[in-house]
């Protein structure tokens, strides 16, 4: 996952010396980055701040937590505007340390592109080199931001399979949430900065509404900023523990930790504690109510895939199955099953598919399997492309080729020999024997991980010929 910086305003401290700010005193924000940062003057990387704000506006500056209630971030109120300089009254004492601090103006639109030139450079170098699975788009404000990022990934970086998660961080993103959700592959509710734009009493309402919409759309939702106090303490507050549990009960797919693991004193304990709370919350999640709600939202008539997915979950619950195994190539079928939040794990067996861009042959499947990991309750496996399931037939000369591993199939070396047949390659039809072999591998994996035991029932969702089938199998010793 690569996280963009986006149109983020920053305070530049070239000396990197700590800056102590005292409550009830004044500090000047200036766009002149050549000046040295001190308790009375903070240089920023944006020339339009004086035109964007007015007297009485709220500005937050900090390195991590950014709430204005602790010692690493400060809460300012605009007192006066002098040319390009903004004079602010300091509302709380704080010490800023490091070379860069984030600056956020509450409910003010910053006239900068969502995907900045610096972000594009990082994506084209580090992102492309590492074949990133996810791009998280900071400060997403419109659906067009997603479309532009997707076009850049596809055309400039050859990252067509990378999924884009929109980070909702301000009022503008909240206002256009529905259209953003429709365009994005997932949503991150960045409650830190969002909590600055929204009144505190409104944050929980947006969280519940956003998670509900993500759940009904079958798109993963991630909640941030849950146990801030564990940055410096071994245990979370009771309110934070309840907050984590409520995020699970509300329907979140994942919890994203920040300062707690970035600079916190107890990163391992934080992960362990949050994990235990999630585990307890999942045990009391009301799946029956959720299933009815999801089915009602989809309505009738259901699509073919939606009907199969909901039927598989219903059957698994009725027979008290220990797992659902789903064969898929794109991952969509498994994601639809997970959308109904079954009480048992979903083992997604991703079958590689052969693809070509006319220059090289590649197997799909690895991206789809890894990207499934962020979806709640979904546990992906990647089938071996050397298996007969991935057999290729050259119809013209009746010869058969097997692809080894996930390596590319390079036809350019023998272009003259193979060119007449390039349009004649198709994936071999899977046989029952092939499916049964892959099913056995999946069952063995379930047994090894302790999910499936002797005499358990398992629901299997797969395609046989042109039909989708849901079947129930009972295991022997």
How would you characterize the overall build of this protein?
This protein is α/β, with parallel strands linked by helices and 477 residues long. The protein has three domains: 2-105, M1 Pyruvate Kinase, Domain 3 (Beta Barrel), CATH 2.40.33.10; 117-284, Phosphoenolpyruvate-binding domains (TIM Barrel, Alpha-Beta Barrel), CATH 3.20.20.60; 288-474, Pyruvate kinase, C-terminal domain (Pyruvate Kinase, Chain: A, domain 1), CATH 3.40.1380.20. Helix 8 links the parallel strand 14 (221-224) and strand 15. Helix 2 crosses helix 3, helix 5 packs parallel to helix 7 and helix 12 crosses helix 13. It is elongated and about 75 Å long. Residues 388-431 have low confidence and may be disordered.
Q: Major sheet, described briefly?
A: 7 strands, mixed
Please state the average pLDDT score: 84
CATH superfamily of the largest domain: Pyruvate kinase, C-terminal domain
Structural class label = alpha/beta
Give the class-level CATH name of the largest domain. Answer: Alpha Beta
Integer tally of domains: 3
Write the layout of secondary structure elements.
Blueprint: E1 2-3, E2 9-12, E3 19-21, E4 26-30, E5 41-43, H1 49-52, E6 58-62, E7 73-82, E8 85-90, E9 94-96, E10 100-105, H2 117-129, E11 134-137, H3 143-157, E12 163-168, H4 171-175, H5 177-183, E13 186-189, H6 191-197, H7 200-217, E14 221-224, H8 238-250, E15 254-256, H9 259-262, H10 267-283, H11 287-298, H12 304-318, E16 323-328, H13 332-339, E17 346-350, E18 353-356, E19 361-364, H14 366-371, E20 378-382, E21 392-394, E22 400-401, H15 415-418, E23 425-427, H16 432-448, E24 457-464, E25 467-474
Parallel strand pairs: 1-11, 4-5, 11-12, 12-13, 13-14, 14-15, 16-17, 16-24, 17-20
Antiparallel strand pairs: 2-10, 3-9, 4-8, 6-7, 6-10, 7-8, 18-19, 21-22, 21-23, 24-25
């Amino acid at each position: 996952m690569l996280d963009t910086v986006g149109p983020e305003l920053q305070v530049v401290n070239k000396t990197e010396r700590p800056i102590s700010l005292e409550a009830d005193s004044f500090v000047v924000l200036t766009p002149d980055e050549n000046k040295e940062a001190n308790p009375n003057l903070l240089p920023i990387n944006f020339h339009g701040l004086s035109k964007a704000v007015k007297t009485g506006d709220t500005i937050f500056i900090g390195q991590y937590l950014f709430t204005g209630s602790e010692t690493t971030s400060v809460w300012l109120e605009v007192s006066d505007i002098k040319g390009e300089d903004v004079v602010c009254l300091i509302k709380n004492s704080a010490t800023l340390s490091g070379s860069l601090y984030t600056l956020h103006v509450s409910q003010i639109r910053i006239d900068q592109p969502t995907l900045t030139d610096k972000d594009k450079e990082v994506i084209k170098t580090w992102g492309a080199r590492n074949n990133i699975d996810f791009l998280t788009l900071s400060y997403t404000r419109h659906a067009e931001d997603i479309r532009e990022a997707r076009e850049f990934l596809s055309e400039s970086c050859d990252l067509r399979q990378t999924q884009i998660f929109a980070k909702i961080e301000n009022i503008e993103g909240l206002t256009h949430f529905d259209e953003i959700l429709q365009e994005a592959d997932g949503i991150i509710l960045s409650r830190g900065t969002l909590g600055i734009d929204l009144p505190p009493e409104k944050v929980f309402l947006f969280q519940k509404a956003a998670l509900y919409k993500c759940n009904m759309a079958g798109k993963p939702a991630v909640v941030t900023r849950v146990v801030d106090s564990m940055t410096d303490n071994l245990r979370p507050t009771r309110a934070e523990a309840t907050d984590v549990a409520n995020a699970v009960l509300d329907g979140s797919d994942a919890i994203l930790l920040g300062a707690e693991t970035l600079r916190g004193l107890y990163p391992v304990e934080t992960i362990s504690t949050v994990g235990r709370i999630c585990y307890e919350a999942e045990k009391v999640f009301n799946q029956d109510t959720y299933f009815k709600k999801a089915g009602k939202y989809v309505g009738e008539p259901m699509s073919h895939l939606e009907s199969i997915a909901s039927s598989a979950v219903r059957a698994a619950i009725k027979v008290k199955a220990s797992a659902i195994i789903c064969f898929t190539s794109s991952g969509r079928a498994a994601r639809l099953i997970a959308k109904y939040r079954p009480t048992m794990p979903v083992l997604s067996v991703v079958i590689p598919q052969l693809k070509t861009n006319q220059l090289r042959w590649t197997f799909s499947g690895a991206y789809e399997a890894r990207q499934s990991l962020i979806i709640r309750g979904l546990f992906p496996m990647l089938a071996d492309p050397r298996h007969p399931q991935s057999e290729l037939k050259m119809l013209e000369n009746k010869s058969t080729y097997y692809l080894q591993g996930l390596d590319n199939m390079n036809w350019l070396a023998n272009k003259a020999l193979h060119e007449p047949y390039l349009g004649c390659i198709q994936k071999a039809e899977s046989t029952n024997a092939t499916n049964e072999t892959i099913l056995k591998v999946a069952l063995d994996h379930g047994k090894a991980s302790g999910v499936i035991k002797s005499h358990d029932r398992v629901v299997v969702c797969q395609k046989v010929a042109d039909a989708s089938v849901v079947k129930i199998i009972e295991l022997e010793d």
